[in-house]
Amino acid sequence: MLTREDNDLVTKVGPGTPMGNLLRQYWIPAMMSSELPSPDCPPLRVRLLGENLIAFRTTSGAVGVIQNACPHRGASLFFGRNEEEGLRCVYHGWKFDVAGNCTDMPSEPAESNFRTKVHAVAYPTVERGGLVWMYMGPRAVPPPLPDLMANMLPEGEYSIGSYSSECNWLQSLEGDYDTIHVSFLHRGSITPEETAGPDPKLDPAMDYYALKTRWSRFTIADTEVGCTSGCNRPADDENTYWRIAHFLFPFYAMIPASYANVSVIAVVPIDDENCLRFHVHRAAGGRGNPVNDIMHEGVTTGYHRDPSHNGTGWLDRFNLVGNRRNDYLIDREIQRANKGGLGYSGIPGRGQDGAVTESMGVIYQRDNEHLGVTDTGIIRMRRLLLSAAKSLRDEGTVPPGVDKPELYRMRSICAVLPNGVEGIGATREFQYEPVVSAPAIAAEAAVGGS
Question: Residue 201 contacts by C-beta under 8 Å, 6 or more apart in sequence?
Fold first, then answer.
């Protein structure tokens, strides 16, 4: 368990905090490209790491992210006119480009050069694979984007879903690295016989074994960019079923899947008490989850792919229909029947995860926990984050992976191996992609930034 002091250190992300400073060392996926669908479209409110920002797409298509408050007298630039390569405050007409430069100040005398002395805080952005990435760190020249394979696929070969969660980012991320809960929360009412069977050709994630034996042992191995968890349980008398998952700095999870799967989850802190999740995976041959496709009042209860359902407030992006105000749409009759993908919890879609992670409170006090063997991966992930945040704070040590994008060329694994074989080491060659195709790693030029 964590002490109260360490719990605060590892969860709180505002400007100047140790964890906030660590996260700012990395590129951050800030929004879907589809949230700014066209040049000169309406601006977007974006809160990240406790900062209120305004995103806009210029006439030429570049994305800018600047401070919410106009540097003149603090009016919100959300109400600004997005026109001719800049965002113009409607209060007095001051206009700013993607780099935060004031390009026009029509309220001042024509001979004034005051506009050259005014600057808005702005952050560099890069678009790749349907996401807009933002760098909020201290470097004048940002580090390279991470080589996350799911975010480096050609147009049409990837799928992105998102949803927000009303709890601290680390609580949400811990749910992804907690691979044992799948056999209960999401699959507790499903029998092994209801899956495709113990043939990996038929069942890519091989749920059969996870449902046949719902307890598991765990091994953990550190990597250069995080840690790898090996959840293992009996497959049959002679073999062991391994589910290999990864935590990658600072907020990525790769959950167990098949050899062919390419996916990543990013859990991005909105502020201390809210987070935004991006799920990116290879679209072709992807394995669907019908639980996530249930519709309620015209909106999916699972991953959102359509920004038109979003509101315009700071916390109105990709909200779940099932939430704490309606008890996550729990159906006690379905729960009592205990059948199908909803039966165990009675909760549809991603509300299953929300109900457990958000009901802990917005920031769970981890000194109340009683951790078991199956929490080994979560314990290690917390320690790595704490160590990296303290090393940056106390010694200025650059966190893992910031300058090594190739370390992110990883994938999760499910495998059936002979008893006695250590699964993490035995599948190492399948966990890494040593070479990424040239089109995927084409040079990216950051735009904007102070």
Answer: none
The answer to the question of residue 449 being in a domain is no
> Do 337 and 224 fall within a single domain?
yes
* Residue 366 backbone dihedrals phi, psi, to 5 degrees: -75, -5
Looking at the structure, do residues 89 and 193 belong to the same domain, yes or no?
no
User: 173 and 77 in one domain?
Assistant: no
Please, are residues 187 and 341 in contact by the beta-carbon 8 Å criterion? yes
Q: For residues 215 and 235, what is the distance between their CA atoms, to the nearest angstrom?
A: 12
* 225 and 349 inside one domain: yes
Beta bridge partner(s), residue 54: 45, 66
Domain end (from 102, 135, 168): 135
Residues 70 and 175 in one domain: no
As a whole number of Å, the CA-based R_g of the chain is 23
**Is the separation of the CB atoms in 275 and 172 below 8 Å?**
yes
Spell out where 102-157 has E strands.
102-104, 122-123, 125-128, 131-135
Give the model confidence (pLDDT) of 260-296 as tens digits.
478 999 999 999 999 999 999 887 544 444 444 577 7
Q: Is 130 helix (H, G, I), strand (E, B) or coil?
A: coil
pTM equals 0.93
Greater pLDDT, 237 or 413: 237
Residue 370 burial (CB < 10 Å; 0-12/13-18/19+)?
Answer: exposed
Judge contact between 430 and 423, C-beta under 8 A: no
Under DSSP, is residue 353 helix (H, G, I), strand (E, B) or coil?
Answer: helix
pLDDT tens for 127-167 read 999 999 999 999 999 999 999 999 999 888 899 999 999 99
Q: Which of 351, 287, 278 is CA-nearest to residue 320?
A: 351
- Nearest alpha carbon to residue 234 among 68, 377, 423, 449: 423
Does residue 291 contact residue 285 with C-beta atoms inside 8 Å? no
Are residues 162 and 265 located together in one domain of the fold? yes
Its domain, for residue 38, covers 27-135
Whole-number Å distance between alpha carbons of 51 and 370:
34
pLDDT at residue 195 in the model: 76
Strand pairing report for 274-282 and 158-165: antiparallel
Whole-number Cα distances in Å, 333 to 84, 345, 354, 373: 57, 10, 20, 33
DSSP state of 286: P
